[in-house]
Each structure stands twice: as C-alpha cells, then as structure tokens.
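Researcher: Please predict.
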Amino acid sequence: MEASGGVVTPGTGVREGEKEREEARAIARRGPRRNWVRPLLMWIAVVFICIFCLFPFYWLINVSLKTGSDLSQSDIFPPSPTLDNYSSIFKNDDFTSALKNSVIVTTITTILALIVGSFAAYALARLRFRRITIPLLMPAILVALIFRTLDALRIFDLPYVLTQGANGTTTLSLIAHQELTTNRLIGYGSALSVLTFVIVMAVSFLYIRTVGGNIKSLAEEG
C-alpha cells in the first residue's frame, strides 16, 4: 500500500525497514575488510622499528663471536662462533682497571645525586602543600637517579676529552672505543661493547627490582 492524502501506509514502513537492514548488512560486510588494514600496517611499522633498533646490537654480537678471517665476512650468522674474545677480556688488566674506574665514578655520582636530591626533598617538604608535592615529585627524583647512575656507568665523553684514558682513567666505554678505532681489534672491541651493555642492563634490572617498588608505592600514595 502507498501513502495517500498524507497518511503513511504499512507498506512504506516495511520497505524502509528492509532498506535499513540492507544498508546494515552492507556496512557489516565492508567493516571487517577495512578493520584489518590499520592493525596490519601498525604491526608492520612495529616490526620495522624493532628490526631497525635491534639489528645494530645483533650485528655487534655477531662480530664479537668472530675471529681471524671471519671478521672480513659479512655473514648474518658467524660461520665459526667462538668466545675467545670474551675470554681474553677477563685476562686483560685494562678491563679490570676500566671496570673499577666506572664503578668509582658511578658510586660517587650516585652518592652526590642522593645528597642533592635529599636537600631538594627536604626543602620541598617545608612547603605548605607538601602532601601534594612530595608524593608526585619523589618518583621523578628516583627515576632521574636511576638514569644518572646508568649514565655514569657508561661514561665516555669526559675521560675521552680530558685524559684520553691516560694515567689509569680509562672506563668501559672508552676502552671499547680504543680497541675498535685505535687498535683495530674489531672482534675484541665488539665483545667489550656487548659486555658493557650487559653490565648496564644488569644494573638497570637491579634498580628496577629494588627501587621500582618504591616508585610504585609513592605514586599510589600520591
């Protein structure tokens, strides 16, 4: 039945309902086809960024496992992997001295950061709104302390500019740079770089395990 004299008959409502259902089905059919494109592109970008960031570190490990003529080859996997470069590190007194210097610099830097941070926290605690300021600020102070410690552990620029590692002032990063660039010991220098990274990651893990709980509790209290 059709509309007559401004009155809508039941047939018009049925046709409109069918039309709406058809449009809904068409949208449902088109929806999944469009929905998978964006996640796919996102994951492709994530994989590309991961490869871009991690491949240099993988290549460093790859070179550190090579010796002799294998160093001149650009194989994705080392043809004859060996740990000779790593074993020779611990037989070298320069590594022990560099590790000791890095630990000394890190310890002094951390203590100074704690002292300065403590004075800053005391001054802020005297503020009128200390119950609001301190809980929000302490996690940031602890995170800054973590990064300051890690930065001191892998320090390179200051001893390189000031002393070039002379008179027993070499550090882990500096000795790795010298072996790679000056002595042209690519495998040995790569092993030193990998070992430095492992030490920094180990300290980061210990910091997160010990200090991370305090940061979380302080943030919850805030």
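Model: Residues 1-8 have pLDDT under 50 and may be disordered.
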